Amino acid sequence: MPAVRAPETSWRESATGYLFLAPWLIGFFGLTLGPALVSLYLSFTDYDLLSNPRWVGAANYVRIATSDPKFSAAMHVTFLYVALSVPLKLAFALLVAMMLNRGLRGLPLYRAIFYLPSLIGASVAVSVLWRQLFASDGLPNQALKLVGIHGPSWISNPDTALYTLVALAVWQFGSPMIIFLAGLRQIPKDVYEAAEIDGASRSQQFWRITLPLLTPVLFFNVVVQTIDAFKAFTPAFIISGGTGGPIDATLFYTLYLYQEAFAYFRMGYASALAWVLVVIIAAFTALSFLSSRYWVHYDG
């Protein structure tokens, strides 16, 4: 018969495991779950950081839904940004991944170079550089002057300001590109060889072989990049000077939330805005998983 461990020995082994888990548990309950629950409570209060929270029930959520034009403006800008930046970034990432998948020499070097913008793209320094790049005397306008065109100040024009942020997002294509490249490497080459024997063109191979077999990777990238796009903050804050201008053209949802919390000290209302964003992201993610059964193809 197997030996039965003494309760004291079992307790010591469990205690050792929990001791190693303690840093994560402290971080989870103290820095994630705890603040989230406090934020949920504050979303039902009127709180300005200086006085005690005053319970107002669902008043903050009612205001969001009925009488806050800034909320509508921020939602419009954010959804437009997501709808433009995510498809363009993924399309560009897939294009570069397919080029790198052709067996280029020095592939690790190219992969590192293309991945670098994803590491530094959301930094303050890059956002400041981007603001200078698309100013009235920036590099694009200097190039346009060579052909006799006087370009606008892209970041000061409400018709073009958002598109500079979209361009910055697309420039950070390195992360999904690496994932696409890994997915392309998993597609068997004999499938393409059989298609060539059958007379399939390059475009037919892409639409009938590459894209269907790449749908699991595409699904992952769509979900991750969309969530990141909803949470975008630093570029809009730096380029607009924290105002979301011009004329709320770059008023991202996260930037509006920041203004309510740290410019107007309406912490209760900002907490309600944060939970609305959580619900929006959760709803998108749930819909993505529900729809994936119709277009994502897994082996077997």
UniProtKB/TrEMBL annotation:
Q: Where are the transmembrane segments?
A: 21-44, 79-100, 112-130, 161-184, 205-224, 236-258, 270-290
Listed CDD domains: TM_PBP2 (cd06261)
Q: Does the keyword RNA-binding apply?
A: no
Alphabetized, the UniProt keywords read:
Cell membrane, Membrane, Transmembrane, Transmembrane helix, Transport
Membrane topology, as annotated: Multi-pass membrane protein
Keyword Transport (UniProt): yes
Principal subcellular localisation of the protein: membrane
Q: Where is the ABC transmembrane type-1 domain?
A: 75-288
Pfam families membership: BPD_transp_1
Query: Where is the protein found, in the record's own terms?
Result: Cell membrane
Family assignment from sequence similarity: Belongs to the binding-protein-dependent transport system permease family.
The protein here is known as Sugar ABC transporter permease
Q: Which organism is it from?
A: Bradyrhizobium zhengyangense
Give the taxonomic lineage as stored in the record. Bacteria, Pseudomonadati, Pseudomonadota, Alphaproteobacteria, Hyphomicrobiales
